[in-house]
Amino acid sequence: MPQLIAPDVRVHASFLAVMAEFTAEGRGDVADESMVGRDLRLWSHRWQDPAVFAEYVAALLADGDPDRPRTDGRVPCTNLWWAEGDEMLGRIAIRHRLNDFLREYGGHIGYDMRPSARRRGHATAMLRAALAPTAALGIDEALITCDTTNVASRKVIEACGGVYEDTRGGKLRYWVPTAP
Description:
Elements: E1 3-5, H1 12-24, H2 35-43, H3 50-62, E2 77-84, E3 87-95, H4 100-106, E4 109-113, H5 122-136, E5 141-147, H6 151-159, E6 163-168, E7 171-177
Antiparallel strand pairs: 1-2, 2-3, 3-4, 5-7, 6-7
């Protein structure tokens, strides 16, 4: 049964397959401002090396440290992976607070599901599982956004209790209670 795990080097082979699927669907070009797009541009040419992948995992884990210095307006972020054994299916990022950009477009939570795992309920289960760690950060209601054209993500957010607030800059904005 899939579960949320902290980023872990043991899923290296599966992670590479996930990123290859994202690349095949056109993610990672300069216009892709998503988490996946950023990571593909910064890391993908080096991920095959286990030592570099271990650095990447360490960087993701360090993102959750609220005392770690940050640049570019970034906020502390807990990164989790949705995995079944050593098979990575998706990833989710829980931002500990909102800055101006996140308040308008990005929200508290962002997630990606590998293309081959979509339409099987994984994204909904992953988001539901991420609500408890979000609540533990003191976030009672999480802002979650998705593109206006992303019907699947809209349905995931609504299935997890998302209440539509408005649309800004091509993004649907929902508030999701984090307590059961």
